[in-house]
TrEMBL record:
Belongs to the class I-like SAM-binding methyltransferase superfamily. RsmB/NOP family. This is NOL1/NOP2/Sun domain family member 4. One of its GO terms (cellular component) is mitochondrial large ribosomal subunit. GO terms for molecular function: RNA binding; RNA methyltransferase activity. It comes from Aphidius gifuensis (Parasitoid wasp). GO terms for biological process: rRNA methylation.
């Protein structure tokens, strides 16, 4: 009996010793608190980089990015019951972006026309008596036009109308104006000069020439911190893609009008309204009645909703996304056999496509740092330690895809390059690098479209970063009242 008792005590002692030796498990809250997640690394990188780029407005962009709720849209599925879908969306209080754009565009034309008339009259007669009355008339007219975008029992408040008529007169715009300092690509090269003079700490790098018998291998180095020289990528190389070439110029042409496709119906809620659209349901025609463009593969489906493409080719280099695209297309379009010869879903590297002069429209939606996703998800996060090299080489990879698209597009065709990143390196920097390389390697002539004026009427729902010195494109900035994006896009047209 005493032997059993002693054995039990010994087992208890052994268990206690093991527990004290190893401490808390990896899932314990104290251990999880010490762990640096990929999203934490992303936020640290953004604070370091974007704070110097966007200056005073960065804290407001940062707060918007960290919010769980973001704005999004619903696109009516034209292959389902369109009228039923539109009625349901309007009853929810959603607005048709096309109607909203046209209303603000017309109001802007009237304001500009009236402003020119008043200025001319002031020069002749110095009479401003009609200015105030016209302003009141214009406000009433705009309010009545906006009211038509809502259901009959939904009142468009005067406060909302005033905010929209002022166009750039809310708190977010004041913040942008205060931080009006444009981007200066040359200044970011100071990082390169700093690294040129700095001494790199190489004591933790195991050089391939040392061999396995080296005494350095006996030193304790955590496996997560070990870097082989063959895989070492200098972070300064990431900034080399954003350089200013004095010997390269591209013609930038202003685009005054944004032409909405007749059949494309996009709905969203008003500013500061973060209501969620219900989960898409099936209509009487057995097709889902609308789609929400939060899905990564929706861009091809949205293009089909314009009813304009004769042939659509949707390509991705990831087989998993290609399979998912087939599933989604089948859900919204019905039997894909009907689309045979008109819809192609392919799995290839965008750098290797060879269909020259076949396409007249190409959307280059490249892999990027996906800033909003990187701050909310650890799965598949580009800021994981295992993806450092991939992240630093993103601009080079993006530029090669864009360059190939510029070579494939037919004369007169349009290439749109887009990212969901705030990084000027991945945005203007990549466009500049691709255009410069195309200029050096071919006789193709390209022009860049300046969409600032064309997108002006959409400033009522989006905040465009027009004051940060972008040369080749436009960017949607996420802010408190308009938490969209980020999204950068550049429109490039091949002349010959």
């Amino acid at each position: 009996m005493s032997q059993i008792f002693c054995r039990t005590n010994i087992n208890r002692l052994i268990k206690i010793c093991v527990r004290n030796r190893h401490g808390h498990g990896p899932d314990h809250w104290s251990m999880a608190k010490k762990k640096v997640r990929a999203r934490d690394k992303a936020l640290h990188h953004f604070d370091d980089f974007y704070a110097s780029v966007y200056a005073g407005i960065w804290p407001h962009i940062r707060a918007a990015l960290l919010k769980e709720d973001s704005k999004y849209v619903a696109v009516v599925n034209n292959f389902g019951d369109v009228e039923e879908t539109v009625d349901k969306l309007q009853l929810l209080g959603a607005m048709n972006i096309k109607d909203l754009y046209n209303a603000h565009k017309q109001a802007k034309i009237e304001r500009d026309t009236r402003s020119g008339f008043i200025n001319q009259k002031n020069n002749d007669d110095n009479d401003e008596s009609n200015d105030e009355s016209f302003g009141s008339l214009l406000e009433r007219k705009t309010k009545s036009e906006l009211q038509t975008l809502f259901p009959s029992d939904y009142e468009a408040t005067s406060n909302m109308v005033k905010q929209k008529n002022n166009n750039n007169n809310d708190d977010d715009d004041d913040i942008i104006k205060k931080s009006h300092k444009p981007l200066d690509p040359v200044k970011m090269r100071a990082l390169e000069s700093d690294i040129a003079t700095a001494k790199i700490d190489e004591h933790r790098i195991v050089k391939p020439s040392i061999g396995l018998t080296s005494s350095s291998l006996y030193e304790y180095i955590p496996a997560t911190k070990l870097k082989g020289l063959d895989d070492y990528v200098f972070e300064s190389d990431h900034y080399n893609y954003y350089t200013k070439s004095a010997d390269f110029n591209i013609n930038v042409v202003k685009e005054n009008t944004l032409n909405f496709p007749e059949h494309l119906k996009i709905y969203t809620f008003d500013s500061d309204n973060y209501s969620r659209f219900p989960i898409p349901k099936r209509s009487k025609t057995d097709d889902q009645y609308y789609i929400a463009t939060t899905m990564l593969i929706c861009k091809s489906l949205v293009a089909l909703q314009t009813l304009m493409p004769k042939v659509l080719v949707s390509n991705d280099n990831k087989l998993g996304r290609v399979n998912q695209m087939n599933v989604v297309m089948n859900e919204y379009l019905g039997d894909l056999n009907v689309w045979e010869g008109r819809l192609f879903i392919t799995n290839a590297d965008g750098r290797d496509l060879e269909d020259v002069n076949v396409y007249n429209k190409i959307l280059v939606d490249v892999p990027c740092t996906t800033d909003r996703h990187s701050l909310h998800e650890d799965d598949n996060n580009i800021f994981k330690p295992t993806r450092i090299k991939e992240r630093l080489q993103l601009p080079e990879y993006q530029a090669k895809i864009l360059l190939n698209a510029l070579k494939l597009i037919a004369p007169g065709g349009t290439v749109v390059y887009s990212t969901c990143s705030l990084s000027p390196i991945q945005n203007d920097g990549v466009v500049q690098m691709a255009l410069k390389q195309l200029w050096e390697e071919s006789d193709s002539v390209m022009i860049v479209k300046d969409m600032k004026e064309a997108l002006g009427p959409l400033s009522c729902i989006y905040k465009f970063g027009n004051d940060f010195g972008l040369k080749y494109g436009q960017i949607v900035l996420p802010v408190k009242k308009h938490n969209w994006g980020p999204m950068y896009f550049s429109k490039i047209v091949r002349i010959k």
